[in-house]
Amino acid sequence: MTNNDVLRRLRYALDLSNPTTLQIFRLADHDIKQPELLAFLKKEGEEGYLELSGALLEAFLDGLIALRRGKREDGAAVPRTGKIGNNDILKKLRVALELKEGDLLEFFKLAGFPISKSELGALFRTNGHANYKECGDQLLRNFLKGLTLKYRDQAAQS
Length: 158
Hints:
Elements: H1 3-14, H2 18-27, H3 34-41, H4 54-69, H5 86-96, H6 101-110, H7 117-123, H8 137-157
Helix pairs in contact: 1-8, 2-4, 4-5, 6-8
C-alpha cells in the first residue's frame, strides 16, 4: 500500500474533514496547506498527484494520537525515523484509537479476514524478536477495511 492510500483510507474510515486533517498535521508540527493535502489525496496517475513521504505519514499518525489522546505530558518530541512500515502504522493506530486486542481482532473479522491472537501479537513484537511477523499490505488493507466498517457503521447509527 502506498502512504497516500493509507491516508485516504484513514480519512474515510474516521470521517476526517480537510480542516481536521490539516489540524492533525499541525499537531505533529507539520504545516501542510490545503492544496498540498488535496494533492496527497489524489490517486496515483491523476494530474497533480503528490507522493506522501513516510515522514509525513508518520507525522500524521503522531498528530492523530495527539488529537485523540492529547499531547505527551512530558512535552518531549516524538522521535521519528522518517521510515514507517505497516507494523508501525498498526501500532500507532492502536495507540491513537485506544484499541484493545479484542477490537483489533474484531476489525479483521469484520473485513472477512480473521486472524488468531498469536498472529496479532506477532505483529506488535519488536523487529528481530523470534515471533515477530511482518505486516503485509493485504493484512493492513483488511485492518483498514474492518476499521472503516466499524467506525462508519457507528457513525451511520448515530
